[in-house]
Amino acid sequence: MHDALATLRDASTPPDIFRRVARRMSLLIAAEVLKEVPTIEGTVQTPLGAAFARRVGARVTLVPVLRAGLGMIDGVLDLLPTARVGHIGLQRDETTALASRYYVKLPPDLEDDVVLVTDPMLATGGSAVAAIDLLRAAGARDIRFVCVVAAPEGIAAIERRYPDVPIYTPVVDRELNAHKFIVPGLGDFGDRLFGTV
Ligand code: PRP
Ligand code: URA
Asked: Rounded to two decimals, what is the model's pTM?
């Protein structure tokens, strides 16, 4: 995980490598999330007999926050190929850093799902809280926030408003700069993922 993070942070990593490593990183984080998803125990027949089996026991819905969150879904789907996928489009204003919504498409009946919000950068937390607001309004109860780099401010923002939403992050960076970018962070994840720098 930290090897992948080093590649993502490295300013010289080109978009094709960045995409591939973001996918691998997301799979590794998803494996951590899966440790805390309800399971069903049973048996399975091997060619030589019955074996104890434990399977994922909840329906999982992924909700990437566009655009950057898209870079995480393939890795999570590698582990959970049957997950449903909703989309929330949020864009931070470059001056105020306030997130505004431009697109929402969610699967129905979220009440009993484990809902994984993927958004790689948790900076001020404005986008994360806006995404969770939308999901709560749509009926989701078990929401988990999954990112690649978090700032203390973003973690505090989620914990203040949604203390019941766990945050999965491999690293918490030092601070936000004057433009509300995470320092040292990795820059603009969406731009680096899609080559729009
Ligand atoms: C980035 C990032 C998060 C948000 C985090 O998205 O992907 O969604 O900023 O910042 P916050 O915690 O201060 O809200 P951005 O708005 O730049 O859009 P993009 O994904 O389309 O690049
Ligand atoms: N969005 C990013 O992509 N990077 C940051 O550091 C903050 C918000």
From this structure: 0.95
Q: Whose CA is nearest to atom 7 of ligand 2?
A: 181
How far apart CA 126 and CA 28 sit, in angstroms, is: 25
Residue 18 CB–ligand 2 contact under 6 Å:
no
Q: What is the pLDDT of residues 88-121, one digit of tens each?
A: 999 998 889 899 999 999 999 999 999 999 999 9
Helix axes 126-137, 152-161, angle to 10 degrees: 30
Whether 138 contacts 161, CB under 8 Å: no
Instruction: Please state, in angstroms and rounded to a whole number, the distance separating the CA atoms of residues 88 and 111.
Output: 18
CATH number of the structural domain 2-194: 3.40.50.2020
Strand partners, 89: 66, 103
Domain ranges of the chain: 2-194
Nearest CA to ligand 1 atom 2: 121
Structure tokens at 106: 């969610």
